[in-house]
Amino acid sequence: MSASEVGARSLPAGAIAVSSTAAPRARRHWASLPAVATGALLLVAWWVASRAAEALPGPGATAAELLTMAADGRLASILSRTAAFMGACFVIAVVLGVAGGLAIGMSSAVDRGLSPYLAALQGMPTSMWIPVAAIVLGTDVWSLGAVVALGAVPAIVLGTRTAVRNVPPLLLRAGRTLGEGGTSLVRRVVLPAALPGIMSSVELGWSIAFRCLVAGEIFSGALSGTGIGKVIGRSRQTGDLTEMMATIVIVLAFTVTVDRLVFAPVQAHLRARRGLVDEGLSR
Amino acid sequence: MSAPVQFRGVTQSFARRGSARSGAARNGGARAALATVDLDVAAGEFVSIVGPSGCGKSTLLDLVAGHSQPATGSVTVGGVPVKGPGPDRMLVFQEHALFPWLTVQENVEFGLRAAGVDVARREATATAWIARVGLADAAGLHPHELSGGMRQRAALARAFALAPQVLLMDEPFSALDAPSRDRLHVELQGLWRDTGTTIIFVTHNVREAVVLGDRVVVMSSGPGRVIAEVAVNLPRPRVVESGRVVDLAQHVRGLLDEADQLGITAPREGKDGYVSI
Questions:
Q1: Do residue A177 and residue B87 have CB atoms under 8 angstroms apart?
Q2: CA of B264, closest CA in chain A: separation in Å?
Q3: What pLDDT is recorded for position A5?
Q4: Using 50, 70 and 90 to split pLDDT, how confident is the model at A146?
Q5: Residue in B67, B114, B162 nearest the CB of A180
Q6: Contact A275/B145, CB-based, under 8 Å?
């Protein structure tokens, strides 16, 4: 292994790979420039839009509101409760979805039985289930939680099934020759081989679940206990969008944080191990 | 240690694509892959099977490995008919089939772990075999970080670590560059000498077959059958460039040419030394 290959492998996932070991630090600083530049452009665009539309709060007003919310604890409350709710629902959705997808992918009988219904379920807007759940299950946290979790499950199941189907048959043969079979074949060969595809479907499931959560909040105002619904209610009554805007920023920041802290590193790690990383067009 | 392999009256056929898929291929829609094959491989023998594409040589390996059942006839290993795949009959493929998410060390330990060997012993066995194939420095790397020759060495280590009774090799060196391949020829002969496993080596490269095997089984296609067996009595280790190997390979090529298996239709003028007829 040449020195440049060793150097390239040890850099963090977000950095640009270098061909020489000459100036890796300088490159790393420049690497965040695109994100900073785009962020600045977006802020300018927001400010222009807030000048044009009377009702839309600008970046300054939103930042002030955010500070107020941080001071009186509303920010922490929204963030922590959103994280808890999404975390719980999402873990359930992933466990059900991946297990279901593995079962469907490995057994053609189960596949023929379930796939048409899953495809239908995935295509339907899950928020249509929210009124039904509210009436049938009651208006506490668990009814929205059930809808959010089950909303993400079809996408995860179908994505997992595709990933399982795309496992190269050669690897399955090798696994069988080496003496694995049945569930241990699934655990030791199929699951790791399908993991990059499964992770993609898990990320999709996350975004679906999040949309369900917000849709539920809009519909009923308080189902999930995160407080987002109350914010929406207040904004509707007073007509002042500042708190709403600040909450939007909080929610966006939460999503980006989850992506950067959870999904992106996992994907990068998976791809690096399997040799799926390429320099792309950066050379 | 090693087990004899026997093929008795073996035939195989595959259903043509598009024809109705039932349990057994109907004659009208079936493509016969193997006409009757009778073959005996002694325990500890190194047999090369050579033939053109589509002559059923990979099918023979599949039958011994247990990935498919013969249409008629029987395949036995050590007197016991083959029922399904297992680590006592290890397959080494042309595409290395190493698991890309595991390091070399973990790949070699995989079969041992499946067999229930405890951690200390399987680590020791795996490390020993990795060193034996010359990959001691690369044990912590993933397959995508290895060269083609290194990957096939890792596949060999994985196969030998399970101490199989029969080693089935399906053109494992065909995808390698010539220097790596030549080096692996010598190393494989060394590994065979040390372990004494029965090896059935399938290739389309006639010289490779003569270099490696005690006996070269020559097959023809349409449908596959054995047309000749040539004993190779040259001393080991043999290399592809040796004069005696080349002469014997020419003889084998002549047999293939007689059965019109070389696919060469251009007229040949005089004895240009390529084929002996």
A1: yes
A2: 32
A3: 44
A4: confident
A5: B114
A6: yes
Q: How far away is chain B from the Cα of A168, in angstroms, using its nearest Cα?
A: 9
Half-sphere exposure of A120 (CA within 13 A, CB side): 4
Convert the pLDDT of each residue in A229-283 to its tens digit.
Answer: 777 778 878 877 888 888 888 888 888 888 888 888 998 898 888 887 776 665 5
Q: Are A170 and B89 an interchain contact pair (Cβ–Cβ within 8 Å)?
A: no
Note the pLDDT of residue B175.
86
**Alpha-carbon span B216 to B232, nearest angstrom:** 7
Residue A6: closest CA among chain B residues belongs to which residue? B145
CA distance A228 to chain B (A): 41
Kindly state whether B147 is in contact with chain A, defined as any CB-CB distance less than 8 angstroms: no
pLDDT, tens digit (0-9, with 9 covering 90-100), for A48-63: 888 888 778 888 888 8
CB of B63 within 8 Å of a chain A CB? The answer is: no
ipTM: 0.80
For testing the chain B interface, which of A177, A183, A195, A270 should be mutated: the one with the most B CBs within 10 Å?
A177
Cβ–Cβ contact A8 with B under 8 A: no
Q: Is B180 within 8 Å of B96 (Cβ atoms)? A: no
Range of lowest pLDDT (A1-15, A39-53, A117-131, B131-145): A1-15
Could you give the C-alpha distances from A229 to A126, A136, A137, A148, A220, in angstroms and in order? 18, 20, 19, 15, 7
Candidates B86, B97, B145; nearest CB to A174: B97
pLDDT digits (tens, 9 = 90+) for A17-44: 444 455 566 666 677 788 889 888 988 8
